[in-house]
Specification:
30% helix; 24% strand; 11 helices; Lyase, Ornithine Decarboxylase, Chain A, domain 1; TIM Barrel; 9-stranded mixed beta sheet; 366 residues; alpha/beta; 8-stranded parallel beta sheet; pyridoxal phosphate
Amino acid sequence: MTVPMREAHIDLAAVRDNLRVIARTVAPARTMAVVKAQGYGHGAVEVARAAVDAGADWLGVVDVAEALELRAAGIDAPILAWLHGQEADFAAAVRAGIDLGISTPEQLERAAAVDGLAQVHLKVDTGLSRNGFEESEFAAILGRVAELSAAGRIHVRGIFSHLANAGAEEDALQIARFEAALARAAEVGIVPELRHLAATAAALRVPASRFDLVRIGIGMYGLTPFDDEGAAALGLRPAMRLSAEITSVKRVPAGAGVSYGYTQRTSSETTLALVPAGYADGIPRHASSRAPVWINGSRYSICGRVAMDQFVVDVGDAPVAIGDRAVLFGDPSDGYPSADEWAERCGTINYEIVTRIGGRFTRTYS
Protein backbone atom coordinates (compact mmCIF):
# COMPACT_ATOMS: atom_id res chain seq x y z
CA MET A 1 0.00 0.00 0.00
CA THR A 2 1.33 3.42 -0.99
CA VAL A 3 1.89 5.79 1.92
CA PRO A 4 0.85 9.42 1.26
CA MET A 5 3.60 12.03 1.04
CA ARG A 6 2.14 13.65 4.15
CA GLU A 7 0.24 11.33 6.48
CA ALA A 8 -1.66 11.72 9.71
CA HIS A 9 -2.26 8.12 10.69
CA ILE A 10 -5.01 7.65 13.27
CA ASP A 11 -5.13 4.54 15.45
CA LEU A 12 -8.86 4.13 16.08
CA ALA A 13 -8.20 1.26 18.47
CA ALA A 14 -6.35 3.76 20.65
CA VAL A 15 -9.35 6.11 20.49
CA ARG A 16 -11.66 3.32 21.62
CA ASP A 17 -9.32 2.16 24.37
CA ASN A 18 -8.78 5.69 25.68
CA LEU A 19 -12.50 6.31 25.88
CA ARG A 20 -13.06 3.06 27.75
CA VAL A 21 -10.28 3.85 30.23
CA ILE A 22 -11.87 7.19 31.09
CA ALA A 23 -15.39 5.77 31.10
CA ARG A 24 -14.37 3.22 33.74
CA THR A 25 -12.90 6.00 35.87
CA VAL A 26 -15.97 8.24 35.76
CA ALA A 27 -18.72 5.60 35.99
CA PRO A 28 -21.61 5.76 36.68
CA ALA A 29 -21.50 9.11 34.86
CA ARG A 30 -22.16 8.81 31.15
CA THR A 31 -19.69 9.95 28.50
CA MET A 32 -19.86 12.48 25.69
CA ALA A 33 -17.11 12.02 23.10
CA VAL A 34 -16.14 15.49 21.87
CA VAL A 35 -15.36 15.44 18.15
CA LYS A 36 -15.37 19.18 17.45
CA ALA A 37 -12.74 20.76 15.18
CA GLN A 38 -12.66 17.68 12.95
CA GLY A 39 -12.13 15.46 15.94
CA TYR A 40 -9.24 17.56 17.27
CA GLY A 41 -7.64 17.14 13.87
CA HIS A 42 -8.10 13.36 13.82
CA GLY A 43 -11.24 13.23 11.63
CA ALA A 44 -14.69 13.83 13.12
CA VAL A 45 -16.68 11.13 11.36
CA GLU A 46 -14.17 8.34 11.84
CA VAL A 47 -13.51 9.21 15.48
CA ALA A 48 -17.23 9.56 16.19
CA ARG A 49 -17.89 6.08 14.83
CA ALA A 50 -15.05 4.64 16.91
CA ALA A 51 -16.29 6.43 20.03
CA VAL A 52 -19.85 5.17 19.62
CA ASP A 53 -18.49 1.68 19.02
CA ALA A 54 -16.56 2.00 22.28
CA GLY A 55 -19.71 2.89 24.20
CA ALA A 56 -19.87 6.70 24.15
CA ASP A 57 -23.38 7.78 25.11
CA TRP A 58 -23.22 11.17 23.38
CA LEU A 59 -21.21 13.08 20.82
CA GLY A 60 -20.30 16.73 21.30
CA VAL A 61 -19.50 19.34 18.66
CA VAL A 62 -19.25 23.11 18.61
CA ASP A 63 -21.74 24.10 15.93
CA VAL A 64 -24.72 22.84 13.99
CA ALA A 65 -22.71 22.40 10.79
CA GLU A 66 -20.37 19.96 12.54
CA ALA A 67 -23.36 18.05 13.89
CA LEU A 68 -25.05 17.87 10.50
CA GLU A 69 -21.84 16.45 9.00
CA LEU A 70 -22.09 13.54 11.44
CA ARG A 71 -25.75 12.98 10.61
CA ALA A 72 -24.97 13.05 6.87
CA ALA A 73 -22.42 10.29 7.50
CA GLY A 74 -25.16 8.12 8.98
CA ILE A 75 -24.25 8.57 12.64
CA ASP A 76 -27.44 8.51 14.69
CA ALA A 77 -26.05 8.79 18.23
CA PRO A 78 -27.25 11.71 20.39
CA ILE A 79 -25.36 14.91 19.51
CA LEU A 80 -25.05 18.24 21.29
CA ALA A 81 -23.94 21.43 19.49
CA TRP A 82 -23.28 24.39 21.78
CA LEU A 83 -21.83 27.46 20.05
CA HIS A 84 -24.02 29.33 17.57
CA GLY A 85 -23.91 32.36 15.32
CA GLN A 86 -27.01 34.29 14.38
CA GLU A 87 -27.39 32.30 11.16
CA ALA A 88 -27.14 28.86 12.77
CA ASP A 89 -29.83 26.61 11.29
CA PHE A 90 -31.75 25.55 14.38
CA ALA A 91 -34.58 24.19 12.24
CA ALA A 92 -32.21 21.79 10.48
CA ALA A 93 -30.78 20.78 13.83
CA VAL A 94 -34.19 19.95 15.28
CA ARG A 95 -35.16 18.00 12.15
CA ALA A 96 -31.94 16.00 12.47
CA GLY A 97 -32.45 15.27 16.16
CA ILE A 98 -29.54 17.44 17.30
CA ASP A 99 -29.65 18.94 20.78
CA LEU A 100 -28.84 22.63 21.08
CA GLY A 101 -26.78 24.34 23.73
CA ILE A 102 -28.55 27.57 24.66
CA SER A 103 -26.55 30.49 26.05
CA THR A 104 -28.71 33.58 25.47
CA PRO A 105 -32.39 34.59 25.63
CA GLU A 106 -32.30 35.15 21.86
CA GLN A 107 -31.11 31.58 21.23
CA LEU A 108 -33.85 30.29 23.53
CA GLU A 109 -36.53 32.08 21.51
CA ARG A 110 -35.06 30.92 18.20
CA ALA A 111 -35.05 27.32 19.36
CA ALA A 112 -38.63 27.57 20.58
CA ALA A 113 -39.79 29.07 17.28
CA VAL A 114 -38.81 26.17 15.04
CA ASP A 115 -41.23 23.44 13.98
CA GLY A 116 -40.94 20.42 16.22
CA LEU A 117 -39.75 20.02 19.78
CA ALA A 118 -36.31 21.51 20.36
CA GLN A 119 -34.17 19.54 22.79
CA VAL A 120 -31.99 22.06 24.63
CA HIS A 121 -29.19 22.19 27.18
CA LEU A 122 -29.03 25.48 29.06
CA LYS A 123 -25.47 26.80 29.40
CA VAL A 124 -24.61 28.58 32.64
CA ASP A 125 -21.51 30.75 33.00
CA THR A 126 -20.06 29.67 36.35
CA GLY A 127 -16.90 31.71 36.03
CA LEU A 128 -15.15 31.07 32.72
CA SER A 129 -16.51 34.39 31.37
CA ARG A 130 -17.33 32.94 27.96
CA ASN A 131 -20.77 32.05 26.64
CA GLY A 132 -23.63 31.03 28.92
CA PHE A 133 -26.21 32.72 31.10
CA GLU A 134 -24.74 34.77 33.92
CA GLU A 135 -26.15 34.13 37.40
CA SER A 136 -28.70 36.95 37.46
CA GLU A 137 -29.65 36.40 33.81
CA PHE A 138 -30.22 32.69 34.41
CA ALA A 139 -32.55 33.36 37.32
CA ALA A 140 -34.50 35.85 35.21
CA ILE A 141 -34.86 33.54 32.21
CA LEU A 142 -36.08 30.46 34.09
CA GLY A 143 -39.68 31.60 34.09
CA ARG A 144 -39.64 31.86 30.30
CA VAL A 145 -37.92 28.46 30.06
CA ALA A 146 -40.68 26.91 32.19
CA GLU A 147 -43.35 28.60 30.06
CA LEU A 148 -41.88 27.33 26.78
CA SER A 149 -41.47 23.86 28.25
CA ALA A 150 -45.09 23.75 29.38
CA ALA A 151 -46.19 24.88 25.91
CA GLY A 152 -44.31 22.00 24.30
CA ARG A 153 -41.93 24.28 22.39
CA ILE A 154 -38.72 23.08 24.08
CA HIS A 155 -37.58 20.26 26.32
CA VAL A 156 -34.73 20.98 28.70
CA ARG A 157 -32.67 17.81 28.46
CA GLY A 158 -29.60 19.29 30.07
CA ILE A 159 -28.00 22.10 32.06
CA PHE A 160 -24.25 22.51 31.68
CA SER A 161 -21.22 24.67 32.24
CA HIS A 162 -17.45 24.47 31.81
CA LEU A 163 -14.60 24.64 34.30
CA ALA A 164 -11.67 27.01 33.92
CA ASN A 165 -9.17 24.47 35.35
CA ALA A 166 -7.71 27.29 37.40
CA GLY A 167 -7.01 25.26 40.53
CA ALA A 168 -8.84 23.31 43.22
CA GLU A 169 -10.27 26.39 44.94
CA GLU A 170 -11.64 27.86 41.72
CA ASP A 171 -13.00 24.46 40.62
CA ALA A 172 -14.89 24.14 43.93
CA LEU A 173 -16.32 27.64 43.52
CA GLN A 174 -17.55 26.85 40.01
CA ILE A 175 -19.08 23.58 41.17
CA ALA A 176 -20.94 25.46 43.91
CA ARG A 177 -22.23 28.02 41.40
CA PHE A 178 -23.35 25.22 39.10
CA GLU A 179 -25.21 23.47 41.92
CA ALA A 180 -26.88 26.76 42.82
CA ALA A 181 -28.06 27.17 39.23
CA LEU A 182 -29.45 23.63 39.26
CA ALA A 183 -31.32 24.39 42.47
CA ARG A 184 -32.85 27.54 40.96
CA ALA A 185 -33.99 25.56 37.93
CA ALA A 186 -35.56 22.91 40.16
CA GLU A 187 -37.55 25.59 41.95
CA VAL A 188 -39.52 26.20 38.74
CA GLY A 189 -39.83 22.52 37.91
CA ILE A 190 -36.84 22.19 35.56
CA VAL A 191 -34.96 19.03 36.52
CA PRO A 192 -32.90 17.94 33.54
CA GLU A 193 -31.84 14.42 32.66
CA LEU A 194 -28.25 15.54 32.10
CA ARG A 195 -26.18 17.82 34.31
CA HIS A 196 -22.68 18.20 32.91
CA LEU A 197 -19.69 20.30 33.89
CA ALA A 198 -16.50 18.27 33.55
CA ALA A 199 -14.21 17.84 30.55
CA THR A 200 -11.28 15.41 30.59
CA ALA A 201 -9.20 17.14 33.27
CA ALA A 202 -11.97 17.50 35.84
CA ALA A 203 -13.47 14.13 34.93
CA LEU A 204 -10.21 12.47 35.94
CA ARG A 205 -9.30 14.52 39.02
CA VAL A 206 -12.44 16.18 40.40
CA PRO A 207 -15.08 13.51 41.15
CA ALA A 208 -17.54 16.13 42.44
CA SER A 209 -17.69 17.64 38.94
CA ARG A 210 -18.87 14.50 37.14
CA PHE A 211 -22.64 14.77 37.77
CA ASP A 212 -24.58 12.79 35.11
CA LEU A 213 -22.26 13.17 32.11
CA VAL A 214 -18.64 14.06 31.39
CA ARG A 215 -17.36 15.49 28.12
CA ILE A 216 -14.25 13.65 26.95
CA GLY A 217 -12.09 15.54 24.49
CA ILE A 218 -8.29 15.55 24.64
CA GLY A 219 -8.08 12.36 26.69
CA MET A 220 -9.92 10.34 24.05
CA TYR A 221 -7.13 11.22 21.60
CA GLY A 222 -4.55 9.84 24.02
CA LEU A 223 -3.15 13.16 25.19
CA THR A 224 -2.92 14.47 28.72
CA PRO A 225 -4.69 17.62 29.90
CA PHE A 226 -2.17 17.97 32.73
CA ASP A 227 1.27 19.54 33.05
CA ASP A 228 2.31 17.18 35.83
CA GLU A 229 1.11 13.79 34.57
CA GLY A 230 1.69 12.21 31.19
CA ALA A 231 -0.71 10.23 29.05
CA ALA A 232 0.93 6.87 29.79
CA ALA A 233 0.49 7.37 33.54
CA LEU A 234 -3.22 7.93 32.87
CA GLY A 235 -3.46 4.73 30.86
CA LEU A 236 -3.85 6.60 27.57
CA ARG A 237 -1.98 6.28 24.28
CA PRO A 238 -1.74 8.85 21.48
CA ALA A 239 -3.92 8.12 18.48
CA MET A 240 -2.13 10.30 15.88
CA ARG A 241 1.19 9.63 14.19
CA LEU A 242 2.24 12.50 11.94
CA SER A 243 4.82 11.78 9.24
CA ALA A 244 6.03 12.86 5.84
CA GLU A 245 8.25 11.48 3.11
CA ILE A 246 11.73 12.91 2.76
CA THR A 247 11.80 14.49 -0.70
CA SER A 248 15.39 15.78 -0.92
CA VAL A 249 18.74 14.84 0.58
CA LYS A 250 21.86 16.88 0.01
CA ARG A 251 25.38 17.10 1.36
CA VAL A 252 26.50 20.60 2.37
CA PRO A 253 29.74 22.05 3.74
CA ALA A 254 30.32 23.56 7.16
CA GLY A 255 28.84 27.04 7.44
CA ALA A 256 25.98 26.46 4.99
CA GLY A 257 22.97 28.65 5.74
CA VAL A 258 19.73 26.72 6.20
CA SER A 259 16.27 28.06 5.29
CA TYR A 260 15.05 31.65 5.46
CA GLY A 261 17.17 34.23 7.23
CA TYR A 262 20.05 31.82 7.82
CA THR A 263 19.04 31.63 11.48
CA GLN A 264 21.03 28.42 11.63
CA ARG A 265 24.21 27.38 9.83
CA THR A 266 25.76 23.95 9.71
CA SER A 267 28.58 23.43 12.20
CA SER A 268 30.37 20.90 9.97
CA GLU A 269 29.98 19.08 6.69
CA THR A 270 26.63 17.35 6.98
CA THR A 271 23.55 15.93 5.26
CA LEU A 272 20.31 17.90 5.11
CA ALA A 273 16.97 16.15 4.63
CA LEU A 274 13.95 18.06 3.35
CA VAL A 275 10.52 17.31 4.84
CA PRO A 276 7.53 18.60 2.78
CA ALA A 277 5.43 20.04 5.61
CA GLY A 278 5.28 23.62 6.79
CA TYR A 279 3.13 26.17 8.50
CA ALA A 280 0.53 25.92 5.72
CA ASP A 281 0.06 22.35 6.96
CA GLY A 282 -0.18 23.35 10.61
CA ILE A 283 3.47 22.88 11.55
CA PRO A 284 4.15 25.74 13.98
CA ARG A 285 6.73 28.25 12.84
CA HIS A 286 7.77 28.28 16.50
CA ALA A 287 9.10 24.76 15.87
CA SER A 288 11.99 26.31 13.94
CA SER A 289 15.34 24.97 15.22
CA ARG A 290 13.50 23.46 18.18
CA ALA A 291 11.10 20.59 17.51
CA PRO A 292 12.21 16.95 17.34
CA VAL A 293 11.87 14.65 14.32
CA TRP A 294 12.38 10.85 14.15
CA ILE A 295 14.04 9.38 11.05
CA ASN A 296 15.08 5.74 10.69
CA GLY A 297 15.19 5.13 14.42
CA SER A 298 17.11 8.28 15.39
CA ARG A 299 15.95 11.65 16.71
CA TYR A 300 17.02 14.96 15.23
CA SER A 301 15.84 18.56 15.46
CA ILE A 302 14.43 20.88 12.83
CA CYS A 303 17.27 22.95 11.40
CA GLY A 304 16.49 26.59 10.65
CA ARG A 305 13.13 28.14 10.02
CA VAL A 306 9.95 26.23 9.21
CA ALA A 307 8.72 27.55 5.86
CA MET A 308 5.23 27.51 4.41
CA ASP A 309 5.55 24.09 2.79
CA GLN A 310 8.70 22.48 4.15
CA PHE A 311 11.41 22.28 6.77
CA VAL A 312 14.95 20.91 6.94
CA VAL A 313 16.53 18.36 9.27
CA ASP A 314 20.28 18.09 9.82
CA VAL A 315 20.94 14.33 9.97
CA GLY A 316 24.73 14.53 10.15
CA ASP A 317 26.34 11.50 8.51
CA ALA A 318 23.33 9.19 8.92
CA PRO A 319 22.34 7.16 5.84
CA VAL A 320 19.08 8.93 5.05
CA ALA A 321 17.57 8.66 1.56
CA ILE A 322 14.75 10.17 -0.46
CA GLY A 323 11.60 8.22 0.34
CA ASP A 324 12.46 7.58 3.99
CA ARG A 325 9.82 8.69 6.51
CA ALA A 326 10.21 11.52 8.98
CA VAL A 327 7.91 11.13 11.98
CA LEU A 328 7.14 14.42 13.66
CA PHE A 329 5.20 12.99 16.57
CA GLY A 330 3.36 9.86 17.59
CA ASP A 331 3.31 7.37 20.45
CA PRO A 332 6.48 7.80 22.53
CA SER A 333 6.31 4.12 23.50
CA ASP A 334 7.29 3.44 19.88
CA GLY A 335 10.26 5.79 20.19
CA TYR A 336 8.64 8.75 18.44
CA PRO A 337 8.58 12.32 19.76
CA SER A 338 5.26 13.14 21.40
CA ALA A 339 2.78 15.92 20.72
CA ASP A 340 3.51 17.00 24.31
CA GLU A 341 7.19 17.43 23.46
CA TRP A 342 6.30 19.44 20.37
CA ALA A 343 4.00 21.61 22.47
CA GLU A 344 6.73 22.25 25.02
CA ARG A 345 9.27 23.17 22.35
CA CYS A 346 6.78 25.49 20.64
CA GLY A 347 5.48 27.17 23.78
CA THR A 348 1.93 25.91 23.41
CA ILE A 349 -0.31 22.97 24.41
CA ASN A 350 -0.82 19.55 22.89
CA TYR A 351 -4.41 20.47 21.94
CA GLU A 352 -3.10 23.05 19.49
CA ILE A 353 -0.42 20.78 18.03
CA VAL A 354 -2.92 18.16 16.84
CA THR A 355 -5.92 20.35 15.98
CA ARG A 356 -3.95 22.65 13.68
CA ILE A 357 -2.84 19.86 11.30
CA GLY A 358 -4.12 20.89 7.89
CA GLY A 359 -5.83 19.31 4.94
CA ARG A 360 -2.70 18.54 2.92
CA PHE A 361 -1.97 15.79 5.42
CA THR A 362 -3.90 12.71 4.32
CA ARG A 363 -5.69 11.04 7.23
CA THR A 364 -5.40 7.26 7.23
CA TYR A 365 -6.99 4.92 9.75
CA SER A 366 -6.42 1.55 11.33
